[in-house]
Amino acid sequence: MSAVADLVVRHGHVITMDDDRTQIEDGAVAVVGDTIVAVGADRDVAAQYTATTEIDAGGGPVHPGLIEAHLHASYQLFRGALPDQMPEDETFDSFESVFYNQVRDEDEYLSVALAGVEMIRNGTTCFLEAGTILAPDSAAAAAEHVGIRALLGDTFIWDQPHGFAMGTTEDQAHRRPVLARTPQSRDEALAGLGTQLSRNDRDGLVRGHVAVLGLGTASEQLLVEAKRVASAAGVVLNMHQSYSPADTAADRVRFGTDPLVRLHELGLLDGAVTLAHVNHLTDAEVEVVLDSGVNIAWAPAASMMWGHGSTLHGRHAELWRRGGHLALGSDSPNWSNSLDLFRQIMLAVFGAREAHRSRTYLTAEDGLYMATRGAARAVGMADRIGSLEVGKKADIVIHTLDRPELVPTTDMTRNLIYASGAKSVDTVIVGGTVVLEHGAFRRVAERELYREVRAASRALLRRMDRTVTPNTPTRRSR
User: Fold this and answer.
1) What is the pLDDT of residue 171?
2) Residues contacting 389, CB < 8 A, separation 6+
3) Rounded to an integer, what distance in angstroms lies between the CA atom of residue 91 and that of residue 98?
4) What is the pLDDT of residue 311?
């Protein structure tokens, strides 16, 4: 007699992302509650389980939900507002500081809801937020409404609020705008440290972790305490590190040595720490990364958009090939502008091949691992998500074969990564719940959300006294 499953996905090309990278051409996944109870050949799973709800994947790719390892989820309302020619060191004074002093809680709700909708449509089922949301409760409500898994950090944990990023001197930093709703001292930062961890008392979609902004904004004392809190709670410590040449050089000056060497000396680097970007490393730092097991959330588009050179000079692909722990991130709506991890996979794989002049340097499978298993480790949930295996949460993405990019059916992973990407995402399941069905959201009224976002964006930009100006062409017509 067969057991009863709440949901069975049948007749899919199942890309499990398990240790053996098992793929099942005519496979099935059975789910009870929010947990996977069987993965295998369709005939075997169908014989073992009777489904309350059955989804026929029609031979399309079925894979674990992608995991966004570095995201600023509250900037959606001014995506694309930064002119292409604006130097990065002007953006804080001209846009970001103004945004944070004008944004309202309801704006952040809409921003996170829009980000969630975009990610689900692109096959992402979980994101690690960078600790830059002023109203985490609004963000949590938005994530729960959309049905996406979220890991939230405390608001702007820093005790050197302006930092010394982008080559800013201490004297210059103290003349920069103040973000009124963020900590202004070490005591305030310590008081806010770990407040999101209370979400972990229940097994919900939204959980907490410890995030420190980084980029020169945290003292060694604050970093050490943040690591202590994260370790005690069994969650990841997440921070920006070595993003631009300027902030990397500033860290080297303040530490008196290579930044990651100093962080390692302080006992901050291990497998429960995730550093975003890490675009600029010395040979000594490469060895630190490998020895410590620290996770790196590689955001290739965020470097390429701002011309930081990580694709050409970064060590990410080298670290991967030597056993380092890599995940992928989209960063923000103005630092890559697209919350599409398939795009990041493409940029990572192709960028590495271009930089190393080798077609074989990274493969499609490498990129998919970074966006699933690698990212699950980076967000501290390797035991729960990142692969389709018995006992893990049922975060499942189903693609349709009714896309020209997936015809003919040759190698499914290569066609998925190099051809269709997110365009073929059809149905998305998070924790056993179908949130996107044949391209339609079950919980979200999309058109209404888009209307609300457009209206809120116009109002926000008016309060910011900012207008979106066209770019100046770099080449004049003759």
Assistant:
1) 66
2) 16, 18, 36, 39
3) 10
4) 84
| 3-state secondary structure at position 441 | strand
C-alpha angle with apex 225: 222 to 226, nearest 5 degrees? 85
Residue spans of alpha helices (H) in 80-173? 88-91, 97-102, 105-121, 136-146, 170-173
Cα(99)–Cα(92) distance, rounded to whole angstroms?
9
Residue type, 396: I
8 Å CB contact between 173 and 126: no
b/e code 300-325 from CB counts within 10 Å (16+ = b): bbbbbbbebebbeebbbbbbbeeebb
Q: What are phi and psi of 162, to 5 degrees?
A: -95, -15
Q: Which phi and psi angles does 398 have, rounded to 5°? A: -115, 130
CA-based nearest residue to 123, from 143, 141, 148? 148
Token representation of residue 169: 């001197």
* pLDDT attached to residue 168: 64
- C-alpha torsion sign, points 301, 72, 81, 113: positive
Q: Measuring CA to CA, which residue among 133, 96, 101, 70 is closest to residue 303?
A: 70
| Phi and psi angles of residue 82, each rounded to the nearest 5 degrees, phi first | -75, 125
Q: What is the 3-state secondary structure (H, E, C) of 161-175?
A: CCCCHHHCCHHHHCC
- Write down the pLDDT at residue 475: 65
In this structure, what token pair is assigned to residue 234? 């069994």
Asked whether 339 and 79 are in contact (CB, 8 A), the reply is: no
With the CA atoms of 241, 243, 249 and 251 taken in that order, what torsion angle do they form, in degrees rounded to the nearest 10? -20
CB under 8 Å to 411, separation ≥6 — which residues? none
Q: Is 465 exposed, middle or buried (0-12, 13-18, 19+ CB in 10 A)?
A: exposed
pLDDT score of 167: 56
112: nearest Cα among 137, 84, 80: 137
Integer Cα distance of 280 and 333 in angstroms: 23
* Dist. CA 342–CA 325, nearest whole Å: 19
- In the block, residue with structure tokens 């029609």: 58
pTM: 0.96
- Asked if 330 and 341 touch (Cβ cutoff 8 Å), the reply is yes
- The per-residue pLDDT for 63 is 98
In which residue ranges of the chain is pLDDT below 50?
none
Give the separation between CA 210 and CA 267, rounded to whole angstroms.
16
Output the furthest CA–CA distance in the chain (Å, rounded): 78
Neighbours of 354 (CB within 10 A): 12
| Rounded Cα gap, residues 366 and 298, in angstroms | 13
